[in-house]
Specification:
The complex is a heterodimer of chains A (178) and B (291).
Chain A: H1 18-24, H2 38-42, H3 53-62, H4 65-70, H5 82-86, H6 93-106, H7 112-124, H8 132-140, H9 154-167, H10 169-172
Helix pairs in contact in A: 7-9
Chain B: E1 2-6, H1 10-13, H2 16-25, E2 32-35, H3 45-51, H4 53-70, E3 74-76, H5 79-94, H6 96-107, E4 119-121, H7 122-130, H8 132-138, E5 146-149, H9 172-178, E6 183-184, H10 200-203, H11 205-221, E7 226-229, H12 232-249, E8 257-259, H13 260-267, H14 285-289
Parallel strand pairs in B: 1-2, 1-3, 3-4, 5-6, 5-7, 7-8
Helix pairs in contact in B: 2-13, 3-4, 4-5, 4-6, 5-6, 11-12
The chains are: A mainly alpha (178), B alpha/beta (291).
Bound molecules: iron/sulfur cluster (SF4) (2 copies).
Chain lengths: 178, 291
Amino acid sequence: MVEPKNNVIRLDELDMGFAEDVAKVGAEKINLCIQCGTCTASCPSGRRTAFRTRQLIRRALLGLRDKVLSAKDLWLCTTCYTCLERCPRGVDPTDVILALRTMAAKAGHMLDRHKMVSGFVIKYGHAVPVNEENRKLRASLGLSEAPPTTHTFKEALKEVQEITKKTGFDKLVCFEWK
Amino acid sequence: MQYAFFLGCVIPNRYPGIELAMRKVAPTLEIELKDMEGASCCPAPGVFKSFHQSTWLALAARNLVIAETLGTDIITLCNGCYGSLKEANEILKTNSSKRDEVNKILHDFNKEFRGTIDVKHFVEVVYQNIETEKLKGLVKKPLHFNVAVQYGCHLLKPTKYRKVESTERPKFLDELVEALGSKSVPYRDKMMCCGAGGGVKASNPDVSLDMAREKLENMRNAGAECIVTPCAFCHLQFDRGQVDIRNQSGVDFNIPVLHYVQFLGLALGLESRKLGLHSNAIPIDPVLKKL
Ligand code: SF4
Ligand code: SF4
């Protein structure tokens, strides 16, 4: 007989405190979910991918910690907040996803592309920094070559960098200080 | 009206034409802009808030404090910046333990969050303080276009941090576009996300682009001659996204994209070069020819 192994969720594999942890990280209302699926039905990302908001919340409630935090799908939410506005139970599913991402980042599952963007903020103060082409464009429009932001004010950039050191963000995103 | 002008990242560093348009349009609306010297990335809400909330709050607070020092509310031209700064401002104003935590960090730089200002989006200011009737009176060149209006998500949602008439069928931006002589065409899934937010454009570019493609198809089917949006990130997604779609699948939408402040600038009679429209990836010529 074939054992339907993949479909069996074993009680001893569940982390019963997981949903509590998610609640503590900022998604207090996760327990209110009644699995109606309004979130999944509203999701522009789920329309074209296998990402299912309802399922993610179900797995989190069950306590499938590793499966949830290591899932690539966790990064498919565009934070459009449609599900949050429509959820009939006020679960705030987008906040659940943000909390799960926070936990995933801490557990070492942050994606390289996101580390890179974060690194830009530490290095330049901007997630999208100015480049040569844009400097020229700015000048041709009669604007300063660099905008009056951390790109121009070095002391300000230093503040941004010090803040990321103080909060430990530099370590979280594996930023290499030269 | 004085405002602290928050630039963000995409506008000054990819579409400076939007920055220029704002600097040219503001005086006509009796808006005086003060530069927020040394401001940084807002930081991007969907990304930084989800990685590390205290870093997101501290960096946002640092930006908010720059405006507090100037003594004026913030004005932004990007839904991402708006969402991030508005939400951080609300949290810091109402949650004293988070405020204390942030102020402990800012203390070393002789800064303190006090909670003395508000964060406004440009279209919110135009709608609430200038009003559509007065706006109609300012129009020098009525724009007769079929426009696909793209609100963008973070202008409206989440409603727990802002008052919005409706997130499913809002009207104010359509009214602002129609006040300039155009028709806002209804199109399928108008309120759907552009696909760029939440770090998806960086992590899953194909999924992100496919959302833009779906919206572009719906806009084209509705006969849209251009897209008008108040969000710098939606703007980037639809403008450069059309080039990416062309390169990947050979499909050419060729729908010009304008930020609302640029669209307004045209209606106020400003030259397209003064609005930086020539630097768009999708040529703006069809719009200019019809003026
Ligand atoms: S819409 Fe709300 S209650 Fe329904 S499944 Fe999603 S999170 Fe649960
Ligand atoms: S906020 Fe995220 S999960 Fe919710 S509908 Fe939008 S993309 Fe889907």
